[in-house]
Fold this sequence. Notes:
about 170 residues; alpha+beta; Transcriptional Co-activator pc4, Chain A; four-stranded antiparallel beta sheet; 8 strands; about 40% strand; transcription
Amino acid sequence: MDKTRCKIELGNNRFVQATEWNDEIRIDVREWELKDEKLIPTKKGISLPLHRWKLLVDNFEFLDQALTEKRVYQSHLGGNVYASVQIKSVCLDLRQHWLPPNKTEIVPTKKGICLRPTEYVKLKDVASVIGDFVPELCSIVPCPYSSDHQNQLGFLRCTECNPDHFTEW
């Protein structure tokens, strides 16, 4: 059973929503569609556990800078989920990636959402409000900041930070 703590519109039928589902709190950034006079979620979007949401919020400054300078920037949020800006882009892409068999580079999947400038600005504006509905965010320490990641081996063995190669260490 899910329990929605908050649902805030970003514009264009896109919402950020904090939900309890299967004893885990997640922050969804998703597009919704109108069916039978009722808004329902679509597959276009991404669901982030709290530690990934916190990393996204921590990276707003770097994402803003990349958007202003119209340059490439990519931030790993964990588990092959990235927040990225492409060269000369005005949009923020939140997307799951994967490593195809026998390949060395991860590639984006369809699972995610590309936020337009006004939607991204609204997302940044409501990030602090989400903390009011999800006080658990205050106690979250994102994986890269944890004490076992203070050396390279801790990072390399982590399934969240190094999901495709952690078994090699």
